[in-house]
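Key idea: predict the complex, not the pieces.
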Amino acid sequence: MKNKIVAIVGATGAVGQEFIGCIEQRGIPVKGLKLLASGRSAGKTAPFRGQTLTVEELKDDSFDGVDIALFSAGSGISRRYAPIAVKAGAVVVDNSSAFRMDDGVPLVVPEINGHRIADHKGIIANPNCSAITALVPLWPIHQKNPIRRLIISTYQAASGAGAAAMQELLDGTRAFLDGKPFEPKIMPHPYAFNVFSHNTAIDPDTGYNDEETKVMKETRKIFEDETIAISATCIRVPVLRAHSESITFTCDKPISEDEVRALLKSAPGVKIVDDRAGNYFPMPRDASGQGDILVGRIRKDLSDPSGHSISMFVAGDQLLKGAALNAVQIAELL
Amino acid sequence: MKNKIVAIVGATGAVGQEFIGCIEQRGIPVKGLKLLASGRSAGKTAPFRGQTLTVEELKDDSFDGVDIALFSAGSGISRRYAPIAVKAGAVVVDNSSAFRMDDGVPLVVPEINGHRIADHKGIIANPNCSAITALVPLWPIHQKNPIRRLIISTYQAASGAGAAAMQELLDGTRAFLDGKPFEPKIMPHPYAFNVFSHNTAIDPDTGYNDEETKVMKETRKIFEDETIAISATCIRVPVLRAHSESITFTCDKPISEDEVRALLKSAPGVKIVDDRAGNYFPMPRDASGQGDILVGRIRKDLSDPSGHSISMFVAGDQLLKGAALNAVQIAELL
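Result:
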């Protein structure tokens, strides 16, 4: 990204704002930053390194002169504008699910398969946030002792559904506390003091929702291992911006919790938070605002007497490592 | 309970209040209702069938003339006063964990092993709330096709830690929304918009916390099957009074989601909520205030290609079927 002109598509969204923050906080010397959004948001401003940048309306000619375009404005916008950006000479890092499973599109978590960036034909896809959160700590284990079975139950934050969903959680909660009626508009169910199955469509054949299907398919693509058997249950919890996950995995060979701890101790992007005596483990409140995936509750999975299985609990910032930070890390490797 | 003198120990607590509500709502013609609590709560009143009952201080002679004593005041109180109540001629239904694993004490979920009540020697134990919530829907399946492996991740409400914890969740959330500092006193971590590992001590050998150990041990005792391999991950979510659980189980023989649905359709205490087209599944907001365990997201566990495994998501009122209702159902069978 050094000395490059970078465009952010969806600059006023929850992830878009974090794109700006990541570039600033990481001190990346971009040559220029162009903020793009819908006509509705055009004219809004955002601070960047002491300057005030103005958001421009996303148009067909927006990418003239742009070297790198970071997209986070939904699959529809990505499908329409990413090819235009590529044609204009930009490399696209796309946070939507539009191109993730396309054969010619690398799906990259830098700690895992950063070398795949070299294969790109203009577009590099940023994986699903729940997938990234699980896979960063699972990769060092998988390399040493291949994971054969993976069961994930998520505790997902509002941020994955955007800034409006975060606000709806806050507004709905205040209404609940005040005993006032509240009609959710973004989420399909009341979110205050509630938990619900992820608000994506269910595949009528498998019974899995889109979010779960993404986690299962993307894991196999990122790990380049079509043989891993995976089941995900994706659930929304009333949390603002960090996802947590209860993970149980079975390895090819027996594995101990000490081995897992040793592998994760030096793993990039991972922070072990596993204080049994102090009852201190990964929490979304702690994960919020930091780039590492917190990993704890590392222990033998007692449902598998063979000793091949481990259970653990992880938490990671959905807007950072789950989205903006991972995309910026990809762009830095370009 | 018909024509019996019933005492409630811990009458001012969250479960104690539900004991009173269950007896009233189920129209059980008790001969008398005696409300007992600590000296601190003595003198408080509670409405019951249009009357106003006054809470008495729990003392050694409180059980004279009492036929049935429903305990929910913590393990310490149960250990001290349950034997006194039994000596005075009462049958104790105890909601604490004090006697659950004792050999001579039946651990009963009426839909599963109501016949075990006959074995009691004065004390019948009410199981852990997370165990009840999982086991009511698993039992009909286990009878038909024995469950060999069980993996549970919970989404537990504040109510399991009592009325003060529920109030702390509300107060902490309001403080968060108002941008004010808030120091939790009941829970070890901030609860507003957060998720944390269950606040019970961790066994240093296994790495499992007490809540998880209860779920694992009690399941085997209630199902009378020491061979089931179980792993539980117990997590608190900011929900007031209903627990949800993501459950994956493996049966002895292959099993289909249609078989599970057929078995659960007529199962007592179970309500199937599994609308894939409408994206409507079990939620704690819906489970709150009702006696049934809601079951949905019933689908093949894709991490087990053998076809022996199913995943599902359940929700049940922690204060009702998870505690007071189950105990009152036991007492009705006496």
